[in-house]
Design goal:
With 221 residues, this protein is mainly α. It is built from ten helices and two strands; from the N terminus they run βααααααβαααα.
């Protein structure tokens, strides 16, 4: 059974895994089509611009598309928030296997917004951490970032969590998404962001004489 807690230090992430999904390129182009249209490029029109112009437009479209995935709204955000709250409460209660089980249910994609996605959970967690730990969020306790430390022991996502903690204190975790995922891998960043958010929630609860559950229900939103 998966467990957030490890018996030994987390090994370095392996090389990126490449998975070929039939129809992926067509699906991706359909998703990028509206963004490319804003660049004046019609993906159904055979009269495409020169390769350099097309590549530049694609790069901008992909960046905007990724930011949308990591900045969920409406139902997509609600699902991510609910998942993060459950993980926080499980970890705070010492149920590390339950926390891992919850995160294992997070999906790579959810076209119908029926499940929390990896990108949404990461984006929500990093956005909150940037505000809390840098002091930008006026509702966070003063100097919270200096007091937050990762829990003792070894954890899934601990390498990513270490990076996230440093970056969030400078309000740079969310803007460093690309580097974090390239260096640590999406799964490790998911676990690391949840671990760091739990540590921040527990510290916030202790410094305000509030329960972790109350902080999770009011501040993780």
């Amino acid at each position: 059974m998966a467990d957030m807690r490890r018996r030994s230090p987390e090994p370095p992430p392996g090389p990126p895994q490449i998975q070929l999904t039939p129809g992926l390129s067509e699906q991706t182009m359909r998703e990028l089509a509206p963004l490319l249209a804003e660049e004046g490029i019609d993906v159904d029109n055979t009269g495409v611009p020169d390769p350099d112009t097309l590549q530049a437009a694609l790069n901008r479209a992909v960046e905007r598309h990724n930011m949308t995935r990591f900045t969920p709204v409406g139902q997509a955000r609600d699902l991510a928030v609910a998942t993060l709250r459950q993980v926080i409460e499980a970890l705070a209660g010492g149920d590390t296997t339950q926390a891992a089980a919850i995160l294992a249910e997070v999906q790579p994609e959810s076209p119908g917004n029926t499940a929390a996605t990896v990108a949404a959970c990461i984006g929500v967690a990093l956005g909150l951490l940037d505000g809390w730990l840098s002091g930008a969020d006026p509702h966070a306790p003063d100097d919270l970032g200096r007091h937050v430390h990762l829990p003792a022991g070894h954890w899934r996502g601990e390498r990513a969590a270490t990076d996230i903690l440093v970056l969030a204190r400078k309000a740079r975790a969310f803007s460093s998404l690309g580097t974090l995922i390239a260096r640590q891998g999406g799964e490790h960043v998911l676990y690391g962001s949840a671990l760091t958010l739990t540590a921040a929630t527990q510290t916030c609860a202790a410094r305000t004489d509030t329960t972790v559950r109350d902080i999770a229900r009011t501040a993780v939103r």
